């Protein structure tokens, strides 16, 4: 299948940037050490007795793993071809534009996850003697991770399509990263959020990208709430898909009207 070929091509292309891979791995190690030092100091003060140090280590390290797999940057990927007009060629090719971008971004993210996150996860789990979730929560983790990958793709796809109207993409990525960090619990778990910020986060799709998968891994989501979380996440995929389709159709209509 051609989309598998796009996935493999994107994955293979990343192997040529070995220095970037090393830098990304070192950055991941540094980020883990910073968060480990911060959370271990806070927990030792006794202010968060309901959260153990091992639990926070698991949160940080699994969050790193998930973020590497969901770190998609379609807006910046599209910007050069939008500005020089070559993106039109992608529209007339006999491929699904959405699936093409999804396959390529997934290939890149898989490579980054395997080289910059998985080695750290394995080492940390060995030296800190961390435990894996039960079979049920492992299944929930995998399913929620798939949902998170699709949600972040649709979000980045929407922001990428908006670059057709703005001609610039860097600040769109900046906004999306900001929303994801604040409302997605990627740095600070939503458990520690003040009520008003936590309620806002619950109404938005960002928490389903990494917070909910990590919450399942830590077995913090009640069993009777698990399927509801997955269904809501799947609902967000449908909503975002509809929005992105409307924007895409608008772009195609605009190109056709202008004689593109």
UniProtKB/TrEMBL annotation:
It comes from the Bacteria. InterPro entries: ABC-2_transporter-like. The chain crosses the membrane at residues 21-39, 59-78, 99-127, 139-162, 174-193, 227-248. Keywords: Membrane, Transmembrane, Transmembrane helix. Coiled coil: none annotated. This is ABC transporter permease. The lineage of its organism: Bacteria, Bacillati, Bacillota, Clostridia, Lachnospirales.
